[in-house]
Design brief:
Blueprint lengths: L3 E4 L2 E4 L14 E2 L5 E5 L1 E3 L2 E8 L2 E8 L5 E3 H7 L2 E9 L5 E14 L2 E11 L3 H6 L3 E4 H4 L3 E5 L4 E5 L13 E2 L1 E2 L5 E7 L3 E8 L6 E2 L2 H9 L4 E8 L2 E3 L2 E2 L3 E13 L2 E9 L7 E3 L6 E6 L4 E6 L3 E3 L7 E6 L2 E7 L12 E5 L2 E2 L5 H6 L8 E7 L5 E7 L2
Parallel strand pairs: 7-12, 8-11, 18-25, 24-28
Antiparallel strand pairs: 1-2, 1-21, 3-11, 4-14, 5-6, 6-7, 8-12, 9-10, 10-11, 13-14, 13-26, 15-27, 16-17, 17-18, 17-23, 19-25, 20-23, 21-22, 23-24, 26-27, 29-30, 31-32, 31-33, 33-34
């Protein structure tokens, strides 16, 4: 499954379900001719839209990297039918059995969508912190053209490409996988090419899979800034096992004719690389699911990434804020799993995941003082910084 990543102000919710037998590509729009403009809000990188189900308007995250999903509380409230129970394995290799429900009907704008399979999710950080009822996934969008208009905060959905204004953008070939998620082609530097998932549910620009690291290293597509042994990601079945990830500097990244320079990226233990919703900050993206094409209209032809990253990545474990990954040799006196007691003068011992996400004391600063307690109860004071 795709994972939930908690890294200071960055959270990526990813729920890629790898059921072996169930077909999620069922149902769809009841009218054959439709054009919808849906306003969205962007909350911590998530694209949140309003959907009408039953008699109420509900909030969902638009996530191209996942199938449609609903919370267990919504399932119970609407008394939806269960289609199947399926074995799933999350990104961390942990197995569980999840139910798949049938969404008999929902409305996007004035258009009706019927009989969409949806994974049923227990309460989690996604539904709790963002106050949403689930995900609108690629299985619902699979027969449509979808345009992401970042500047106007609008999603456009249609059955007809001629109803979507694409200006002079040239089409690029993409793949649509068995789960109906879009797979893009990118180029790193002069020689390296990669196929990767476009995941609008991930609040990041680009994340390279550890599986592709060695292959792309031979093409000299990046340099390794640092490495970290630890864990800071959660699948739906729990915290990931300890793994080694890398922080990379990618001098040049090209997608659909658009060039972005000086990207800093962290690798992922997931089997696939991905490009996330931060791509939308650089241009208008249109995905033609029907004909396996994409269009990108950049706001400028070349952009330079100036984002900075903390030299320590925390995570939540057993309800406590702890050290998840250490990216600097200067912090070698602390260890992964140590509890973070204070950030500057702010007591973190009672902070929840949601509080940390929306009111982190690390927001808008570049340095911080942490008090950290190890497994023996010893407390140390350390300085962390963005690099």
């Amino acid at each position: 499954m795709r994972f939930i990543l908690i890294v200071f102000t960055l959270i990526a919710f990813q729920i890629k379900l790898n059921a072996q037998s169930f077909n999620f590509n069922q149902g769809g729009f009841t009218n054959t001719d439709y054009f919808i403009e849906i306003p969205y809000t962007r909350v911590k990188g998530k694209i949140i839209i309003e959907v009408k189900m039953g008699a109420e308007v509900r909030k969902f995250i638009l996530d191209t990297g996942a199938p449609t999903a609903i919370s267990i509380s919504l399932l119970e409230k609407l008394k939806l039918d269960i289609l199947s129970s399926q074995d799933f394995t999350d990104i961390n290799g942990r197995k569980s059995v999840l139910e798949v429900a049938n969404i008999k009907e929902l409305k996007l704008g004035e258009s009706v969508v019927a009989d969409i399979p949806a994974v049923v999710l227990d309460e989690n950080i996604l539904t709790k912190c963002f106050d949403v009822d689930g995900l609108i996934g690629s299985n619902l969008l699979r027969n449509s053209i979808v345009q992401f208009d970042y500047k106007n905060k609008v999603i456009r959905i249609s059955n007809d490409i001629n109803k979507i204004n694409i200006s002079n953008a040239k089409p690029s070939d993409i793949l649509i996988d068995k789960q109906s998620s879009p797979i893009f082609n990118i180029q790193l530097g002069d020689k390296a090419k990669e196929m990767l998932l476009f995941d609008s549910g991930a609040d990041e620009l680009y994340s390279m899979s550890n599986n592709n690291l060695e292959k792309l290293k031979k093409a000299k597509a990046f340099s390794v800034i640092s490495e970290s042994l630890g864990s800071n990601s959660f699948g739906i079945n729990g915290l990931e096992r300890e793994s080694k990830n890398y922080r990379l500097l990618i001098p040049e990244f090209n997608i659909m004719g658009f060039t972005l320079k000086n990207i800093v990226s962290e690798t992922t233990s997931d089997g696939n690389s991905r490009i996330g919703a931060r791509l939308l900050e650089y241009g208008m993206l249109t995905i033609n699911y029907k004909n396996s094409k994409s269009y990108f209209e950049p706001f400028s032809q070349i952009a330079i990434n100036k984002e900075e990253y903390w030299d320590l990545s925390p995570t939540f474990m057993n309800g406590k804020l702890v050290v998840g990954r250490i990216w600097s040799q200067e912090l070698k006196k602390i260890a992964v799993g140590d509890q973070i007691l204070f950030i500057n003068d702010k007591d973190m011992t009672s902070f929840t995941e949601c509080e940390f996400l929306f009111s982190s004391p690390l927001a808008d600063i570049k340095k911080a003082t942490l008090k950290v307690q190890d497994a023996k109860g010893e407390i140390q004071t350390i300085e962390i910084k963005k690099i």
